[in-house]
Amino acid sequence: MSVVGPGIVLTDGLFDPVESARRPLGSRPLRGEALSGPPTLEDDLPEFDAPPVVEVVLGMQFRPLFGLRPIELAPLREQWRESHPLVQEQPPLPPAIEQVGSGLPTVQFVVGPALQSRTWFLSDDQSSLIQLQHDRLTVNWRQTSDVPYPSYPSVRQAFEERAQDLSRFVTDRGIGEVTVTQAEVTYINAVDTAPDQMGDLGRILRHWDAPSPDLGKPEQGRCATVFGVLGIGRPPVRLYVAVDPAQRPDGRPALFLTLTVRGAPAGPELADTLRFMDQAHAHVVRSFTVLTPDAMHDLWERRR
Predict the structure, then answer these.
(1) Among residues 86, 50, 105, which one has the least CA distance to residue 238?
(2) Given CA atoms 40, 43, 44, 47 in this order, what sign does their dihedral have?
(3) How far is CA 86 from CA 81, 120, 123, 220, 287, in A?
(4) Average pLDDT rounded to a whole number, residues 142-156
(5) How far apart are CA 31 and CA 178, in angstroms?
(6) Largest Cα–Cα distance of the chain, in whole Å?
(7) C-alpha angle 285-276-33 in degrees, rounded to nearest 5
(8) Residue ranges of the domains in the chain?
(9) What is the DSSP string of 142-181?
(10) pLDDT attached to residue 8
């Protein structure tokens, strides 16, 4: 989802993350012959019985493996066919790497063999999506019906299994090894909004100040802001917050609130990537709760 227009800074009330132990990122590739077990979830994270989340994205970027072309993916396609029988080809996404000092990810264009693309593997109801290209693996849960969000541990387990599959695949076929450079967690939330309230960002942002009455009521509003994140992975790690007016697939107007944490895991193992995701998930949940007002928490049935 693109963000257009000036950003705002929303800083009041954000918690101070606790510094965690770090170790340097070596040159070893992603490993994890055994699954790492359930996620480490904080006991005091806010919880909502009716959260507005419509999509969750867990992803990792890795050093390019140009042998990972669509034509080479037939064994993986067969392995995932039962759960993800639908396949589509999409244009590849450029690498987005967090850099020191810029406050924005650097989009890198990698020179390599032509005909690189991004392959989508979708479940029958298209709620589960695996995206794979020569330098990126992403697992998405998408709300395609009234089925509620299945919870973070469920999406995390799906990502972990696909990462294991990919690591074994490229090693067994001599394509190379997966060396992770970035990991990210994204939550997209949709808040149904009346057509004449699409400019009322104060409805979903606690710290939004309405413009001067002399300007009248805004017809639409959008914003974007970036926060540094401490205590997760190897710096820099950043939280991106964006609000955009759009429509749901059925045409209903909504304000989409997107939160993304992206950065480098603390080490090269799959467990390091998963630990980054667990901590990033906790940061997203706490930041979402801080940024949104109590009236919306009641609507989303917050229970702690």
Answers:
(1) 105
(2) positive
(3) 8, 8, 6, 37, 35
(4) 91
(5) 8
(6) 66
(7) 130
(8) 53-108+115-299
(9) E--SSPPP--HHHHHHHHHHHHHHHHHHHHHTTS----EE
(10) 30
